[in-house]
Design brief:
alpha/beta; single chain; 34% helix; four-stranded parallel β-sheet; globular; Urease, subunit C, domain 1; eight-stranded mixed β-sheet; 15 helices
């Protein structure tokens, strides 16, 4: 069977599944009434106490006090909190494995297991930023996930990104299926090839990775990528580090800055231009902390919630005296700490002027950036940067859904929206670390996990 015929059959099958589920009558046993809960809807307002939430099928049917629902299963959540499932707008799949594992991590089974890991941590939706491979699309993984036919987090993808020959992104990190044009003339055909897999957006890398690479992508190349993407109604997200690169990208029409600017504090003029151009900002603070923090034995290093997110052998590596001393003695150690400090300042400055800031972590790009835990650490670091816990939660739910353009169904808990939420044994508005106290995770109105520590 040709790929085109396969895609046509798969599209028809998915359409039947989606239409069938949309018109399926709701059985009374599918109705659940959660009572007496502390309720965070994701819109940024103060939590509501003693709220009832009625879920019918996969939809939130009602929110209020003293709700009645004949035949519904009653779940008393007094002392618990409900909040929207997290949405991570910058992750990677199928790239990581333990330090002693030599198998190929980019397989269907591994990808599904990573989707399930994200979900167990309360991450209901993810965006894979430009490092996917053909089996993601030819094998129907992305489409099956979006149709609800696979377990785990819902999967969005930027398809195949654009990088440099013998440069970023690093091939040794498994980022092998990336366009690496040497001339702007190659880009229209490459963009046409990318369009065939129906990406949510286009990803490009502009970085020398601390001087590791001799050259970064030239403005002529990335401006052509941006222009060709816009011709095809696709937005562009850029991996950046330096303020000068961010400035040029914003002048050239980039839509999303997919990492913090980390070499300099951003100036007021550029902040205002970002706001005027509706540029979205994904700070990925946890990435920058991971670059040095293991040498300092963070307070979460022995937390089972963290350890459960790691690939086999990683915990032993990062807690070894040799690894920690090598990290501390590295010439990049001081630079990485400084970059993190600047990232915190830039996030607060950008957030305060009203630019759309969204949750993203780059988790899964390497084994040190743990999938699932990183999203909770990111919330903590946003609060460290000066956001309130409720502002950080909104960044991770409502804002992140707006970036993916799925906010009509996801991101906030409102009547008529999809019932994707987390039940917590604590109130994260009082302490952001309470997002880690997961009692249950719900996807489309059904409990799918009791958290990463349940097994």
């Amino acid at each position: 069977m040709t790929i085109n015929k396969y895609h046509k059959k798969l599209s028809i099958l998915l359409a039947i599944v989606i239409i069938g589920s949309a018109f399926k009558p709701v059985d009374k046993t599918d109705a659940i009434l959660f009572t007496h809960v502390t309720f965070i809807d994701g819109n940024g307002g103060k939590p509501l106490d003693n709220v009832d939430v009625l879920v019918k099928g996969n939809i939130i049917a009602a929110i209020g006090e003293n709700l009645k629902a004949n035949g519904a299963r009653i779940v008393d959540l007094k002392g618990k909190t409900i909040m929207p499932a997290l949405i991570s707008d910058h992750v990677h799949l199928g790239l990581i494995r333990g330090p002693n594992d030599k198998t190929n991590p980019y397989t269907r089974d591994k990808i599904v297991s990573e989707l399930e890991k994200y979900e167990s941590y309360g991450v209901g939706t993810i965006m894979v930023m430009g490092t996917d491979r053909p089996i993601m699309f030819d094998g129907g993984i992305r489409d099956s996930s979006m149709a609800g036919l696979l377990p785990g987090a819902r999967l969005h993808s930027a398809g195949y990104g654009f990088g440099m020959p013998a440069g970023a992104p690093p091939v040794e990190m498994g980022m092998t299926n990336v366009f690496r044009p040497t001339s702007a003339t190659q880009i229209p055909a490459e963009m046409d090839s990318l369009v065939k897999v129906k990406p949510d957006l286009v990803k490009l890398w502009i970085d020398d990775f601390g001087g590791k690479y001799k050259a970064k992508m030239s403005p002529a190349i990335y401006k052509t990528i941006i222009d060709e993407a816009h011709k095809r109604d696709l937005r562009v997200a850029a991996h950046v580090f330096y303020l000068s690169d961010a400035r040029q990208l914003i002048n050239d029409g980039v839509n999303i800055i997919a990492h913090s600017i980390r070499d300099s504090v951003i100036d007021d003029a550029l902040v205002q231009k970002m706001k005027a151009n509706h540029v979205i900002y994904i700070p990925t603070l946890s990435l920058d902390e991971y670059a040095y923090i293991y040498a300092r034995k963070p307070d979460w290093i022995n937390d089972p919630f963290f350890k459960a997110s790691l690939e086999p052998g990683v915990y032993e590596l990062i807690t070894s005296e040799k690894y920690q001393n090598d990290l501390k003695n590295s010439p990049a150690y001081a630079k990485n700490m400084a970059a993190f400090s600047i990232a915190l300042k830039n996030l607060k400055k950008i957030f305060d002027v009203g630019i759309l800031v969204c949750l993203g972590t780059d988790s899964g790009a390497m084994m040190l950036r743990a999938q699932g835990f990183s999203e909770h650490l990111e919330l903590e670091l946003m609060v460290e940067a000066g956001l309130t816990p409720l502002q950080a939660l909104t960044v991770a739910t409502k804002n992140a859904s707006e970036m993916l353009r799925i906010d009509k169904q996801f991101g906030t808990l409102q009547k008529g929206k999809i019932a994707d939420f987390i039940i917590l044994n604590g109130n994260p508005a009082l302490n952001i670390k309470n997002t880690r106290k997961i009692l249950a995770v719900y996807k489309s109105g059904k409990e799918v996990s009791k958290g990463p520590l349940s097994n």
